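Box 4.2: Ligand-aware structure prediction
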Amino acid sequence: MKSLFRKIFAALASACLLTAWTASYAEMADLLKKCTICHGEQGISEESAYPSIAGIPVAVQVDAMHGYREGTRDCGPVMEMCRISEKLTDEEIVELSEYFAAFPFIRAKQEFDAQLAAVGAHLHEDYCEVCHGDSPDHADRSILHGQWMDYLRYSLSQYKIGARKQPPSMRRQTEKLTDEDIEALIHFYASYGAEEGEAASDK
Ligand code: HEC
Ligand code: HEC
């Protein structure tokens, strides 16, 4: 009798789990469609204004999403990040971030000016590399090497006018930069563009 009860209980429990799993899977798929439209199927965006988010550490993504949702980070030129994050729960934010973080970052192939990139290389070394180096030591940071130029240009302009908060230790470096320096840095990061289809994770 006892074992029959157990069997029924086990069957019921697994049926419930399956339903819950199917439901959350379907919900997740719906949710993902709201992101991939701009950020690409696997977090690799095809538009320069939309950052690729594949491979960006979970903590950085979660922090960004909270910033948009709680209004401490500017929502960008399309305002979509405000509208979308407003409806997300903390759990959904973590799940989405884990999803996109699991794909390799593919550096965007972009046209850049080699002379400007060379100037940018020196600026990067002097002011940015200590935190944004292209090595596993910096795998806990967002990815700049091979990120889309329009997105970087927008971010750096937002930092400059104070619309997006930056760590004080970063501000001490970015405030030394002229507009020309910023442009040079953007060309330097773009110069890391991969050959078509080549995955080049910064991790
Ligand atoms: C209409 C286009 C659009 C949609 C849809 C969209 N995003 Fe974004 N996303 C952007 C833009 C533009 C930015 C850059 C905003 C800024 O300047 O901070 C951004 C920024 C981000 C960032 C920060 C990246 C970084 O490097 O700091 C994350 C994380 C992100 N989006 C995740 C998502 C997720 C998850 C979804 C779906 C729930 C989503 N986005 C839907 C356009 C979009
Ligand atoms: C003391 C460490 C530090 C220094 C120096 C620093 N940064 Fe940052 N930077 C950060 C942190 C922390 C963040 C926010 C979290 C993250 O994106 O990893 C950030 C974010 C950024 C972002 C936004 C990335 C995104 O995906 O939205 C850009 C662009 C950026 N930094 C550019 C620069 C440039 C260019 C320099 C040099 C002039 C620089 N930073 C110097 C620590 C630093």
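In the box above, the bound molecule is heme C. The chain has two domains: 2-101, 114-190.
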